[in-house]
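Re: weekly structure request thread

Next one in the queue (184 aa):
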Amino acid sequence: MNATLDTAHLWFSDRARHRYRIESRQLRKTLQTFVPESGQLTRSVEALFAHQALLGVIQDDLHEVERFQLLDPSAPSRAFYFSLNPRRADRHRGGGRRDAPSGWESIHGGCYLYGENIAWQQRFTQFSLPIELGTGLFDAWVNPFPLGQWHLTIASREHRPQRWQAGTRETAKEKLLSRLDDLV
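Done, posted below.
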């Protein structure tokens, strides 16, 4: 690229960042108006889903989702429900970008749960609902390839890897097995 194109590209990149931040603040302010004094987020989440569907962030109409139920034969009241969505395999592609464009930085290895990365990965169309809990600040993000109608991810603003496979294979197996009791 020549110097003129580099300058123009950086200018447009700065404008995109600026517009994204302004739109993000405006949307967050609007979403907060839906939160009643009780603090319930239901209406805000519904508004976020409507907004993100209109922008095309939600890329799946869920027509391929299969739902399953496993019953415990010795205790029929105990059941485990799960959904399978083959389109979820596409979720790591984001909006098609794997590499940060000029003027943007891939932070934490391009983690797709980190807000600064989500901006460029989703081509400046995905926005979050901020949630403050006793343990810190979080963002609720809709899933482009959801498991169900209201599937969202709540990610910490402070980057914390959220994988169960951390550590040795044996440690990972122990962590997974300890969580299975909660699921059944």
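Residues 140 and 154 are 4 Å apart (CA to CA). The chain has one domain: 3-183.
Next request, please.
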